[in-house]
């Protein structure tokens, strides 16, 4: 392709500026739509996956084989400290969080003339320090509000229902691992909000040691949540965990197996990516094909002269195709610049998509996990690249027919048109 061909293709775009601008606008709008929508969806799914594989599910869950279905207090893993040491020694493992989870009743333990009404609750025995790290159930809970030995923190919704505040006593009534009723009074250290809805609405959080002592579960846990270095590598992490002899009879599940509904939603997202690339393809095809066709018919005389003086048909084809490619690239550049600027702005301000439906909520709860409605878009290079490839291919394909028509003109007939 010669410089003269490129120069002529560029020059010919100015023959009908209105038509050229309309075609560029259609292509730019398609690319803009692709970047904005895919960036918003990418930001949303990144937030969902990080939330799901963070505080509640982790990357891999290890449980007693029957605990997921029955949630019975006596379905636990033994020798947790040994298992934990084995897991933490693996290079694939970043963090290990053993947990004790049991249903109970809770009521204010303060003396009163009227008996306190018991509320359904969930005892959550956690590794307090580990769970305050990023992605933990108690993420961001400062040291002054963390429960010490013999203390608990209570979910905000449960505390409101019971009318308790920090400093008061909380009566916890449950059943131990041997099937006997147990009860204990705990001072409330703090009232907390958590990303995990179960903790926020029903949670009584205490240390693993206190929960084990209350429920007669020494060195035992109902589940061990394991975090690797990348949640996408959960299958490899599961395979490594399965080699530990003490876990051969345990249930080991990746986050994909634990929450299969999310996997289906992710698959749907890939179809949305295809749909929006198709939007760019259609917008580009419509604009470029129309421009190339009209330009070809308007320039029959010019093409006839070029053929008459010895220009080869392939040069005519090259001129029309180059003109279309330049048109498409200008549209892509314009749409990309506008789209990137808007994404950068939204990445700072966030976008509450609940407002599109007239709602005022800022979050939704799914599978005991709170997911924010406020999206911070995440731009990937592929969002720009897909549009670039789609438009480049469309430019060539959409201009081939009018280009071939121009190359097959009879010089004498074309010059008299």
What does this protein look like?
52% of the residues lie in helices and 19% in strands. It is an alpha+beta fold and 417 residues long. The protein folds into two domains: 204 residues, no CATH class; 201 residues, no CATH class. Strands 2-3-7-4-6-5 form a six-stranded mixed β-barrel. Strands 10-13 form a two-stranded antiparallel ribbon. The longest helix is centred in the N-terminal third of the chain and has 40 residues. The chain is elongated, with a radius of gyration of 32 Å.
Uncertain stretches of 5 or more adjacent residues: none
For the terminal residues, how far apart are their CA atoms?
29 Å
Question: What order do the helices and strands follow?
Answer: HHEHHEEHEHEEHEHEHEHHHHEEEEHH
User: Percentage of helical residues?
Assistant: 40-55%
Number of domains: 2
Which class of secondary structure composition applies to the elements?
alpha+beta
Mean pLDDT, to the nearest integer, reads 79
Number of strand elements: 13
Radius of gyration: 32 Å
Largest beta-sheet details: 6 strands, mixed, barrel
Strand order of the largest sheet: 2-3-7-4-6-5
Which word captures the global form?
elongated
How many helices in DSSP terms? 15
Q: What percentage of amino acids are in beta strands?
A: 15-25%
